[in-house]
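Issue 218. Parser rejects a valid record. Input:
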Amino acid sequence: MSFAASVLTLYPEMFPGALGLSLAGRALEARTWSLEAIQIRDFATDRHRTVDDTPAGGGAGMVMRADVLAKAIDHVSPPGDARPRLLMSPRGKPLTQARVRELAAGPGAVILCGRFEGVDQRVIEARGLEEVSVGDFILSGGEPAALVLLDAVVRLLPGVMGNAVSGEEESFENGLLEHPHYTRPQEFEGRQIPEVLTSGNHKKIADWRRAEAEKLTQERRPDLLAAPAHPLAK
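Output the parser choked on:
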């Protein structure tokens, strides 16, 4: 069974976007995964195809309507659909590599791209939407975040990466940032490739890479090392 992604959006023309190129694009052509982008406005009931309204209690901006979104979700995800329902939201739980792997091992995902000030809380609760964030910053809408999530997932699908082992040593896979990389030429502007990497001693190379990964993580993302479940946590 291929990974099936259904994206609910006000801008379906944004898809597949970058996902139609490179590894993801080739996998899409090979039907390793599928993508459908659904226009939310198609589920509005008035002639103006209205999908939003003013926030209850007052305030700036507009809020996406629960009734319209519920119809759209029910259309693409009827009873029995085992795919998780995701809402791309800055207040969501941060996306991690572990969650990406879980999604890649599943049947797909229904992804709702929020716009305006947000989504009516009632549809989040009624349709069991899992709020997901791709970072502590604000985007103009959920579409770029959905593209990021799908890119991270698709590259892990069987057969997408030419060398499956390359995905095992990347940043976050083992709770560490990835070690530095080098390639030819041997010297670049007076800078040499570390001697250990050309020694041919695989044990020393592995130890060096591990030490460098731990060093970089300590310098740049000490929060990863501080996680209770991390093997290096103190």
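Fixed in the parser; the record now loads. The beta strands are 3-9, 33-39, 52-53, 63-64, 85-94, 108-113, 130-133, 187-188, 191-192.
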